[in-house]
Amino acid sequence: MHALRRGTTALTSRTARNALNGRRGLQSASTERFGHLPDSHSPITPKLKFFNSVTEDGGQIPTYRVLDGVGKPIEGAEMPEIDETLARKIYENMVLLPTLDTLLYNVQRQGKISFYMTAYGEEATIIGSAAALASDDEVLGQYRESGVLLWRGFGLDNIMSQCLGNEEDTSGKGKQMPVHFGSPAHHFLTISSPLATQIPQAAGVAFAINRSARRGKNCAAVYFGEGAASEGDFHAGMLFASTIPSPTLFIVRNNGFAISTPAAEQYHGDGIAARGPGYGVWTVRVDGNDVLAVLGAVREARKKCLEEGRGVLVEAMTYRVGHHSTSDDSFAYRSRSEVEDKKRIDNPITRFRLFMESQGWWSKAEEDALRARLKKDVMQAFKRAEGMQRPELQEMFTDVYGGEEPWNIKEQREELAGLLKKYANDWEPWKTELERFKGKGQEWLKKSD
Ligand SMILES: Cc1ncc(C[n+]2csc(CCOP(=O)(O)OP(=O)(O)O)c2C)c(N)n1
Ligand SMILES: [Mg+2]
């Protein structure tokens, strides 16, 4: 008896926390007559009842959608405000993204860059959300969000220079792997590959924004995959942004895979959205292949984020059509037919194009002209960047840390100096390699004498 009573207390206090977080779904009228726990809104109940859902009916969290699979507004759709100019900009960027991806994917296959990651299938999630943000909201990406930079006018030249690591690479002067973009001018923090590190960092950035003159004007938007949400850093970031005033917009791209691990093996609950209310964080799930729904959901989420000065979570349901990266062959763990089906059904670009056509905002002739122009622009930018040299060799060791050069960098620099002395003038592979650097390493070689 005593044990049962203790168990009952534990259960109700858990329920109390959930009620405080704004959930009313588990509360029935009959429980009201027993009053509430002290210092909480948790109603006392004589019934022992477990729960495992955040919805009132115990079902899955719904997915907000505006357009059907062929670009027609669904009945009762709450449409975001959009005019022709904005729609065209969104569509053009949605088409630019895969045009760029196709070229750089092939360039990697030719051995001209070391690595690449495409965003095939996720164009609506990325461009729709980018369009909903203010251009000076701080963005912390995972690695599949170069579309946000395209949207903000980073430009193809900068994209190419970073991927090729040439002398115009403003992201990292050739030090980073391809796709690790960064640009203070575009309020885009440099990508770092260790998963989920950007999530608590985003909460920190948002906290700083909240303490600055930008209070109430900007948020920090953080992108991550549903796989990254399995990291402890996701939970740390969510807890921080829900307890300490920090307008953080959490945008999770649920694209069905973390490399080869399907989403079904990554969580037992109702996706990532179900975790939001656990932190008292306003949450919405959206059809990530419906750009209008993403635009509407992220706009509202951003508004809420600024109004409340706390975290808001958006889960965009999409599908990773491409391989994880150029280091992956996804047909080892999923069928070609699954991918072909996903390309066809709810294709984000086709859906939006059909919507544009129905509004009289787009035509076949414009489509052909756009595709031809983008292909040409992308190829031109690549050719330009390909012809450039790498940054000076010494740049390899600069700007890694702020302040005085630490011992490990000094040690690495000295090691390279020794190797250059030994091989640079006599061994063909080293000679050829040095030719590719601005200044051919000569100045640096002299320095290290
Ligand atoms: C801490 C850490 N663990 C593992 C990896 C290797 N890794 C790189 S991407 C990835 C999958 C991430 O999946 P998800 O977050 O869903 O993003 P997606 O690639 O689907 O966009 C893994 C496991 C890593 N980079 N960092
Ligand atoms: Mg994923």
Automatic annotation (TrEMBL):
<keyword id="KW-0786">Thiamine pyrophosphate</keyword>
<protein>
    <recommendedName>
        <fullName>2-oxoisovalerate dehydrogenase subunit alpha</fullName>
        <ecNumber>1.2.4.4</ecNumber>
    </recommendedName>
</protein>
<comment type="function">
    <text>The branched-chain alpha-keto dehydrogenase complex catalyzes the overall conversion of alpha-keto acids to acyl-CoA and CO(2). It contains multiple copies of three enzymatic components: branched-chain alpha-keto acid decarboxylase (E1), lipoamide acyltransferase (E2) and lipoamide dehydrogenase (E3).</text>
</comment>
<comment type="similarity">
    <text>Belongs to the BCKDHA family.</text>
</comment>
<keyword id="KW-0560">Oxidoreductase</keyword>
<dbReference type="GO" id="GO:0009083">
    <property type="term" value="P:branched-chain amino acid catabolic process"/>
</dbReference>
<dbReference type="InterPro" id="IPR001017">
    <property type="entry name" value="DH_E1"/>
</dbReference>
<dbReference type="Pfam" id="PF00676">
    <property type="entry name" value="E1_dh"/>
</dbReference>
<dbReference type="GO" id="GO:0003863">
    <property type="term" value="F:branched-chain 2-oxo acid dehydrogenase activity"/>
</dbReference>
<dbReference type="InterPro" id="IPR050771">
    <property type="entry name" value="Alpha-ketoacid_DH_E1_comp"/>
</dbReference>
<feature type="region of interest" description="Disordered">
    <location>
        <begin position="1"/>
        <end position="41"/>
    </location>
</feature>
<feature type="domain" description="Dehydrogenase E1 component">
    <location>
        <begin position="92"/>
        <end position="392"/>
    </location>
</feature>
<dbReference type="InterPro" id="IPR029061">
    <property type="entry name" value="THDP-binding"/>
</dbReference>
<feature type="compositionally biased region" description="Polar residues">
    <location>
        <begin position="9"/>
        <end position="18"/>
    </location>
</feature>
